[in-house]
Amino acid sequence: MVSSWELTGHYINRGGTVIKYLCDECGHHNEVKYCVDKKVTGIHVTYLKCEICKVKFTCYVTSNKVRKLIKDNKKLRERKDLSSNEAKQVVKNDEEIESKMKLLKEKYG
Q1: Residues 30 and 75 grouped into a single domain
Q2: Are 9 and 30 members of one domain?
Q3: Residue 96 dihedral angles phi and psi, to the nearest 5°
């Protein structure tokens, strides 16, 4: 089992195996089920919630701009003929995504 804090960015189902996490608060083993709290401002707070003690563990926070950057990068990465400028843009977008998500988590997490 991994701590809930180590699950940020992981997927629920990998190869048919359900991932579980250990609640840092009560020690219960929970199945990973991401919940999303969508704010009116376009902020999405993705979190895990313990089935027993109901404590929420924020995984990540995104804004409209961050989600657009993620979508743009996904499209670029799917292409096989990236120019060097496009490859640099992917790296730049990744850095911006990471920076913005860190600030959002500090504010909303």
Answers
A1: no
A2: yes
A3: -65, -40
Residue 5 contacts by C-beta under 8 Å, 6 or more apart in sequence?
24, 57
Phi, psi of 40 (to 5 degrees): -60, -30
Tokens representing residue 87 in the block: 């490859």
* Cα 47 from chain centre: 9
3-state helix, strand, coil in the chain (%, to 5): 40, 25, 35
Range of the domain at 34: 1-62
Residue 22 and residue 2 in contact, taking contact as beta carbons nearer than 8 Å: yes
Same domain for 1 and 50: yes
pLDDT in tens, 17-62: 678 888 888 888 888 888 999 998 999 999 999 999 999 999 999 9
End-to-end alpha carbon distance in the chain: 23
**Total of domains in the chain:** 2
- Residue 35 CA to residue 60 CA, distance in Å, equals 11
- Prediction pTM value: 0.75
